[in-house]
Amino acid sequence: MSKRPGDDLESNESLNFKRHKFSKPPLSNSVTLLDIASGKQLQKLLTFSQDPQQSLKNVQAFKSFLDGILASHDSKAQTHILKDYLESQKLILGEEEPLTYLPDIFQTWKFALQSNNENILSAVPSVLALLVRVISNSFDLSTYGKLIGNTLLHKNHQELIKRGLTANKSKEYVISPVLRLLRELSMLDGGALSDNIFRARNFTFQALTRNLNLKYVGVSMEEIRKPSVRTNAVRFVLQLLKYLPIKSKKELLREREIFFVLTRFISGDPPFLVRDILETLKTHIVNDELLPREAKTRILTTGLLEKIISLYRYDKEEEKSETSELSIPDSAHKVLLLICTSLNSGLLLNQSGLYPKGLMVNHINGNVNDISGPQIHLGLDSIEWIHNYTEKIAVRNVILSDFIRTLRPWSSIKENELILSVFKSAPELIAEYFLSKNSFLPDPKLTAYWVGYSNFVYGTIKLSLPNNFGHEEGYADLPPPLSILMENLLPKQLNRKLLTKCLGQTANKLIAFFVVRILCLAFQKLQAALRMCREASKASCESIWNQYALRVAEVFSERCPAINVVIAGYRRLEPSDLFQREAFTKLLTLYYEVLPLSVTEAKSNAPVLIGETMMSIEKIDFTLQKGVLRALELENIFRIANLSPGVRWFSRGVNCPISLFLAMLRLSAIASPDAPLLRLKNVLISVVQETQIFQTRPTDSMLDYFIMSLRNIMTDDKMEDFYEYIDSCLTRCVATPIKYIFKLEEFLSENNIAFHDSNISLLPFAMLDQWKFHVKAVDASALQKTALFISQYLGSHTKLIGDKKIIKFLSESFANACPNNSEAQQVMRNYKKFGNEIRNHNYYQVPSRDSKSITATNRTAEKQTSVKVEHCREIVSSEDNNALVRWRKKDVDDVIEDGHIGNLVILLSSKHLSIRREALTQILMFAQNLKDSKFEEKDQIWLLLSELSASAKEIINKSPLPRIFSSFAYHSIGILKDPSHHLFPKINKFLSRSPTWQLDKIPLMYSIMNEPPSSDGKVCSEREWLLKFLLDGLGSEIDLEIFRKRSVFERLLSWYHHDHCQGLQDTILKILVRACSINNASTTLVTRFSVVTWLEVQEALSTNTVLHNLYQDLLKSCNQKRIMRWSRRAIKSKEI
Asked: Which residue intervals define the domain URB1 N-terminal in the entry (predicted)?
């Protein structure tokens, strides 16, 4: 065969399969951003081309065009070009082909899929995501975005999504654009396509769990503009949670694997992503009221909570633009608190406090309930489960129980706060937590672990016991299991052996201090528990509750250290250990108050302790902080002395400079006004009532005058002679009172004064008896000081006794015994002057205030209390019988806004039975109309009216509804129609407690008086509202009896000079005047609440004439004979 000619070879060059290399010249028809001037030009640019390079170039040009729209502030022209292009993309509908929008772009994407061109596979979904974002920013373009989404989600195009999501995990540039596209589509038009995307999860969720694991692996921090595959996948899931409807969201939450992976690496995620996760979790899961609780618990598992806990140690730095008010650890802590303590939104379930799950506590068997039969009654032992639950407790909050076991409260402040918040919200978990712990505090060593754990125990014991021990409707018939209550008071790991070892520490006194603080709280909590047992015994089964209280005290005394151990620890302290000394004495006081039997059995050395303390009383400087702490220590010592048997108040020991009683008087006189030592005054009153030193009624006023006289003469000079004289007088008055009674009777018979009219104590006669010896024993300056005290003390008697002859006689007797023409003699004869000064002196006045400020304060007080007595008796909301028919012709809104429903409520307290019945019927009719109306706040007002009606049904056929309850409803309606009112939360909380009201308790009184306000700075506003409805509700003897039972008047009188109530004195006086207008109320105020004494003190402190008018009105309206007999004619001279 001959060879082929050369020209044939040249002509067949095309058959050579070797790849030729050539340069890539720029495409002649390439278009830049500036070249696109119309929609047709953009359509031509994006026309499908089989040339991969040309197609990629066109897509990139389109991307630049879209970037220009997002970056430009004025992009109307470019947006118009884009709209023309989107309008020109008609839907293609073939015989077998699906509905397609943007056919050229999707055909380019399909071509890249077939040719496996990864550059185009990345560029097309990226530009589509950018296009959807541009469309989202324009309301006019939203329709086109939905068309893009519907086209993408069609089954013939879902392979494109699957290919991008399932690409090799190393090809992030292919996976991320598809995730961004799905995220943008789920956000479009408020989530219009989110449900469609979720329904197509067979494709849209392809390899989602794997993609959630593809976290950023770079060296530096992940940037928000260059997110990783995990970041894009997390954002996609978070957007679905935000926009999915409830039904689809519930299905999504069933995908537990997705959420496990989503939070698996949360501690390593960038700050912006962590914040997105926490915010979505809080807003769209926990706080979503439409999402049922069972759906929330599918995701709010122990594992998820542990991942959030790991954020407490999150330490990645945030950019300044990302930093918010709360750091990430604080934000995570806030979310966890919401999840763990929110009853309606989080994991918290209703529980019954100290009563375990499923326990029958209102069923009493025959051995307990039937006490009239001949059988043997076992009492507390008849309750089968009372001694059970020593190892395991059935709780309702199982998830929270498992979660708190994983916390380390001793090593993290936030974890400590979290677990204490859980304990406060679910008290059933406290005993379960400690019983499940096999180990507790190790040997006492001052390590970070020991200090942290002891602080955690301190916070746990500090939590108050739940009301009624956790039972919802008052106290149960049976008490809670003993072991559960004891774990709340003092966990079993804190046994006597460990506590004794801690108190015996000499090297580290801080350990003993921590334990003493814990024991003080435990004793106070025990005291509260015993008080609750006493209250429960009044309700049902008194014998059971009394035995239970004795058993609780017995078990507690077995766990706590003996009192001698505490005393020994106190005696080892140095004088400079002020905080420790005060804490130890406080604990000793609690031993005497709460566990007196254990103190008696131990034979404590308290008297020795008291004597040692008295030796250092002269070295105290109360002007310094150290002096205040020392004063608190001494106050505790005197309280111990008052509770100790056989203490000699009026005798001095070998090394004691003064007696105990005089030491208390001296301490009360020199104590700082910032620490008035009110408990010490209670001890003084107790001793005075026992010994009858001050026989003048009222005792506390005479005691105050004595202390004020003592304060006025106390200086830095030596006063040993003065103290010795007063001690001698006190001792002789107590030891030999008969001697001074004879002297008093002798004087009274000489002056024809009846003995029962004298109304003076024996102490001035004892002072007179010892005066002549004191005059001879001291010098002139010391004598003058003692004379000043006696003169002021005698002057104070002119206010408290009726006949002034006795005071004049005593004054002359003292003066005659003084040296002639001496200063002491002149002072004695000027007792009236000093008496006036004492009556005008404020005992609790702060010395640092000058006279100008005091005058200004008095003037302000007088303006604030400018009350006219005659107007105070008017009822604020008087009864209007026309309200029965007036509301029927008005709309629901007008009935509420114009106050017609309030007037209707007041009629439930009418004296006429027919009016009360008709008012109840009309209230029920209006409540039904309100429920069917469109009034915004109808639910709260309807609930108020329903509970009021249910409570009134039981009583109105027999007697009127107490006006205090109709007044509460009257004033609450105005608040419930305004959700922004600061009292709105408290009233709603009250209404949610029970369907009926207890008609012997004043609504919201204790909540406003004892709890902090709902909003900062609203203390005065809340109390003002309370006083207004109390004033309006005091209208009859029934209301007065409720006021008496609930100690309303005592609290009002204590409020009169309170810092938060300076503007409320007006209303307090109105309430007192209103009470005087009720039958027999004035007598009750005088005999039970000492209003006469209170008015005398207030009248002495102020020149306001209202107090004087109220004082006269009170004495006129009371039962004169009964008051004279009750006061032993002490108030006779004050009758008008």
From this structure: 102-453
